[in-house]
Amino acid sequence: MFDFLKREKKPNPDATRLLASILVVYPTIQSVTYESKDGMLELSFALNGKFSHNDFEDFLKYVAESVEAYHHIENLGGATIELNVEGVFGTYFLNVRRDMATLTCGELSLLTELASNYFGDKLIEDYGGIPDEDYMIAQADFLEQSLNNTRQLRVDGKLVGVREQERVVVYSR
């Protein structure tokens, strides 16, 4: 009857800032989704161009081997990673799902660098001008802090962060 009186639970601010920071620090990531029920974070990279099935298979193998080596070096046992590609007619989305329990900023940097190196100018990047270096360092530090805070707190529901022109929007679903 009085729906406007119902208060919806607000998303965890640390989780919201985490998704926003990922999109600010890594302009190659087009969207980020966090699903609390499985504790997974999904990063989506957008690609524009023609690719063969083998291109994606080779890339997915390249990422799996590189991430496995990174996990071995960093002693991150038990990490879960899932990779898939979806799309048609020259526009594709490369989706990387990672468990939040073992995800690090170093691995986020590795994933974005691998995608950038492999796909080059076919990887869609959203640079709204050249960001100030001090600002980017502060954002990277903030990202590390948000990642640690989000691991320690319970986050309910599903959060989605997307790019909207020159802004980053995070909403709860």
Could you write a compact summary of the structure shown?
This protein has helices spanning 13-25, 53-74, 105-119, 133-152; strands at residues 29-35, 40-48, 81-88, 91-99, 158-164, 167-172. It has 173 residues and is an alpha+beta fold. Helix 1 (13-25) runs antiparallel to helix 4.
Gross CATH architecture: 2-Layer Sandwich
For the largest sheet, list the strands in their spatial order: 3-4-2-1-5-6
According to CATH, the fold-level topology is: Alpha-Beta Plaits
The total of helices stands at: 4
Distance between the termini: 23 Å
Task: Give the H and E element order.
Answer: HEEHEEHHEE
Mean pLDDT: 82
Describe this structure in words.
The structure is a single chain. The protein is an alpha+beta fold. The protein contains four helices and six strands; from the N terminus they run αββαββααββ. The chain has helices at residues 13-25, 53-74, 105-119, 133-152, and strands at 29-35, 40-48, 81-88, 91-99, 158-164, 167-172. The radius of gyration is 17 Å and the shape is globular. It has a single domain (13-22, 29-172), classed as Alpha-Beta Plaits.
Looking at this protein, list some descriptive labels.
6 strands; Alpha-Beta Plaits; six-stranded antiparallel sheet; alpha+beta; single chain
Architecture blueprint of SSEs:
Layout: H1 13-25, E1 29-35, E2 40-48, H2 53-74, E3 81-88, E4 91-99, H3 105-119, H4 133-152, E5 158-164, E6 167-172
Helix pairs in contact: 1-4, 2-3
